[in-house]
Specification:
Chain lengths: ~375, ~180, ~270
């Protein structure tokens, strides 16, 4: 594999994924622990004629992304908690105006400035509900660098397919940790390119009239079709409307295009789930600790398993329900006060079986921390 | 192979993290092993205590942090005081004679090496202190080959400084060999 | 081309009150674009939120109605990736200089080739007549019932200090002059700011006893004067109109093309 083998930080794996996916434009603002992504792209992008800009804040960054996306670019920004809070405004705009873009959040401890150099997974629900109003969102995560790469490519594919912002929720441990990454050859991972309209010049183009399959073919700003884009509820021309049918129809479309497609894109990994008596559900760096425990327990002949979520939103309700059906105990391992645990409890048949193994002090949850919870569940013998 | 767990500790600016990265990178790129490297970040880039963990293994590595290292490197008194107790019994402790006075006997192979002084005396530049340390660690731990580290140095170090780094690596390895004799 | 070829008739009548100055700005902008013979598909209008921002939807160009204060940030993403397009950003005073103040000064500092038109009616019209950063001391507004104690910005001075390489001011009374200013601004390579003082008879005029739209237009005629005129010497209170700054500095998109050249050469 030679030149394709690298030893890199998770943030660099994300950069490699974005470049592989054909990133054309990055706008961002420095913030720990995501800054390496901006630094690397400032160097790499112009080498291919693509563009990087450091904006005056994260609000401006997401806005510049949306503008650039409308000109036909594949776009991405990267940030962490406080910046992600500022991004919510533009994120809502991208949802409403259906603009493909990728937003990386390398999570650190919050609320507020919190603990910038330490790990937390506290932005899971912010990714879902951070921007105001009813809406759907896609958020992906990963626990190792090969998957950081793959999920970054996937994020671009989903963004382009569904004309939606996609959030990549990494965390400080994944962002800063170094491990192996094998760069796939070009063509090895399928790429979704933007669906462009086939409507000819001079013929009426309706930018917001979905095709039968729900997709909206785009026309680049600067192209032959001149249309309006707005964050207001709008009709098929993109012109503001407060007609109740238009409002109802658009919100349903925005929800349905993601939620109805949920079955098409949940990504997850599973280890020994078939016969697990105790099933861990985890994601991001916490999933590494959970996997560690599972492998050790399996070597002792004990029936532990792991369902590692990679799609966090839309929540893979059906997958969780299916995989937990046979387990006596379900332990959600995460570094917050139970954000995914909440969703798991809603998905499983008997929520009293669901336990939380967590850590919220800025330190990666350890196998020992998880063992402690297992001992509480199973009793002293463990 | 045995899974090897390293903790490199010292103060910011000593190059502790760089040394850890080079070791782990050599394992992955030139020895077809798995390695993960993590570090504890503080707000300061210079001064303050730093710690970097490396795990090297021929199988997949999940939990990436080191709780009980086989090999512990302490380049300051503060880091020695803080971390010496986490060393796995029977492990290897490497300290620098200029910066660290070891106080208690631990169940470990203790190597107090004049790495800083040697780098200063023989090369005249303490900037390669960390590479000198890496030479000693590599020679004593025998997890990766010195040759693999040399290849990483060639890839990472600007040509003008390469010879200096190569020599530092050899000096460290030599100190280690002498200490074994 | 007739004026109506530049507008989206489907979306008229517009939402502006009778007597509002914003329609005059729309008219002036169309006349300038017609005079310059610009291709409609080469023009992008990016606006924010407020009465002024609705100008975007009425124009048959590539139009984007964005978030309050953020239009220049959106426009930056468009311009940097399609530098050949003419990007024009009409903004209200609150939009440009309160919530959007940071984006305004940074767009000016970068000297990116965007034309910013600040339609300054000194009030938030769409939300019902609250004071803006350009209302100034002693002005009555729905949130300043006892009169405002906030000092105002001078848009031209602020833009110049922030690094805009073309800065001008006119009013909706001086339509030919306003057209000249906007024309120069569009042709200028770099960040250009044109402040157009505009009347809001519905809120500003009513709350400050300035009369109807005609009275307000006359007021702008009487309280402004061309830069360097003798009248200014006699009455320092007069607001100057004209071109304050017109200079050349490296334009952002061109400068970034140099970055790309260096990067590709491996420097």
């Amino acid at each position: 594999m030679g030149g394709n083998l690298k030893f890199v930080q998770g943030n660099e794996a994300c950069v490699e994924g974005a470049l592989y996916a054909g990133l054309d434009f990055f706008a961002g603002y420095p913030i720990t622990p995501s800054t390496e992504i901006a630094e690397l792209l400032a160097s790499r992008l112009p080498k291919t004629g693509a563009k990087f800009i450091q904006m005056e804040d994260e609000i401006a960054s997401i806005c510049a992304l949306i503008g650039a996306s409308l000109t036909g670019c594949k776009v991405m920004t990267a940030t962490s908690g406080p910046g992600f809070s500022l991004i919510q405004e533009g994120l809502g705009y991208a949802i409403m105006a259906e603009i493909p873009c990728v937003i990386v959040n390398v999570q650190r401890g919050g609320p507020s400035t919190g603990i910038p150099t330490r790990v937390h997974q506290g932005d899971v629900n912010q990714a879902r509900w951070g921007t105001h109003g009813d809406h759907a969102i896609v958020a992906l995560t990963a626990s190792n660098h090969q998957d950081v790469f793959a999920m970054t490519v996937e994020a671009f594919n989903i963004a382009e397919t569904y004309r939606t912002p996609v959030v990549l929720l990494f965390d400080e441990v994944i962002g800063h940790m170094r491990e192996r990454l094998v760069l796939p050859e070009h063509g090895e991972i399928a790429m979704v390119e933007r669906l462009k309209t086939s409507v000819k010049e001079g013929v009426d183009y309706h930018p917001y009239l979905p095709r039968e399959d729900g997709r909206l073919p785009m026309s680049d700003f600067g192209g032959v079709h001149r249309y309006n884009v707005t964050g207001l509820y709008h009709d098929m021309w993109g012109f503001p409307s407060d007609d109740s049918d238009v409002v109802d129809g658009l919100l349903r479309h925005l929800m349905d295009k993601i939620e109805n497609q949920a079955a098409h894109f949940p990504k997850y990994r599973e280890f020994y789930t078939e016969d697990a008596d105790c099933l861990f559900i985890s994601y991001g760096s916490a999933a590494r600790s959970a996997r560690h425990v599972v492998e050790r327990r399996r070597r002792l002949g004990e029936r532990f398993g792991l369902l590692e979520l990679q799609t966090l939103w839309p929540f893979p309700h059906d997958i969780v329900k299916e995989k937990t059906a046979g387990a006596r105990y379900i332990v959600v391992v995460e570094m917050n006060t139970g954000q995914i645990c909440q969703s798991v409890r809603l998905a499983v048949s008997r929520p009293e079986r669901v336990f939380l193994a967590n850590r919220i002090d800025g330190v990666l949850i350890t196998p020992t921390d998880i063992q402690r919870v297992i001992r509480l569940i199973y009793g002293k013998g463990f | 192979m045995q899974r090897s767990r390293f903790v490199f500790s010292g103060s910011g600016g000593q190059g502790v993290i760089t040394a850890a990265i080079i070791l782990a990178e050599a394992a992955v790129l030139h020895e077809n092993l798995n390695a993960v490297q993590t570090q504890v970040y503080g707000a300061e880039a210079r001064g303050g205590s730093t710690r970097s963990d490396v795990i090297i293994s021929d199988s997949e590595i999940f939990f990436p942090k080191v709780t009980q290292p086989n090999v512990l490197v302490c380049l300051t008194q503060e880091s020695y005081n803080k971390f010496s107790r986490i060393l796995r019994p029977g492990g290897l402790l490497i300290t620098d004679t200029r910066y660290v006075r070891t106080s208690r006997t631990v169940d470990a192979v203790q190597k107090q090496l004049p790495m800083y002084e040697s780098a200063l005396d023989k090369i005249g530049n303490p900037i390669v202190f960390n590479i000198c340390m890496l030479g000693a660690v590599t020679e004593l731990s025998k997890v990766v080959k010195l040759e693999s580290l040399r290849k990483i140095l060639e890839e990472r170090v600007p040509p003008a400084f390469l010879e200096m780094n190569r020599r530092a690596l050899d000096i460290g390895a030599e100190l280690a060999r002498k200490s074994e004799a | 081309m007739p004026v109506k070829d530049y507008i989206r008739e489907r979306f008229f009548p517009h939402i502006w009150c009778s007597g509002c100055g914003h329609g005059t700005v729309l008219n002036v902008l169309i006349r300038v674009i017609e005079r310059l013979g610009l291709n409609k598909s080469d023009i992008v209008i990016v606006s924010g939120i407020g009465c002024s921002s609705r100008i975007a939807g009425y124009l048959d160009f590539h139009t984007m109605h964005t978030l309050h204060g953020r239009a220049l940030a959106f426009a930056t993403g468009i311009k940097l990736n399609r530098p050949e397009l003419n990007v024009i950003v009409p903004m209200g005073d609150g939009d440009a200089l309160a919530i959007g103040g940071n984006h305004f000064i940074h767009a000016a500092r970068r000297n990116i080739d965007i034309t910013a038109i600040v339609m300054n009616n000194r009030i938030y019209g769409m939300t019902g007549g609250q004071y803006s950063p350009l209302s100034g001391y002693g002005i009555f507004a729905s949130t300043a019932p006892y009169s405002s104690v906030d000092q105002s910005f001078d848009v031209a001075e602020l833009a110049a200090a922030a690094g805009a390489t073309f800065v001008a001011r006119s009013t909706t009374y001086h339509v030919n002059e306003a057209a000249q200013m906007i024309q120069k601004a569009i042709l200028h390579k770099g960040f250009s700011v044109v402040e157009i003082m505009s009347q809001c008879p519905t809120y500003f005029g009513r709350k400050n006893r300035q009369g109807d739209a005609v009275d307000m237009l006359k007021y702008m005629r009487d309280t402004t004067t061309p830069i360097g005129s003798g009248a200014k010497g006699q009455n320092p209170e007069l607001i100057e109109r004209g071109v304050f700054v017109n200079k050349e500095l490296p334009e952002y998109c061109s400068a970034y093309d140099e970055v790309i050249r260096h990067a590709m050469e491996g420097r």
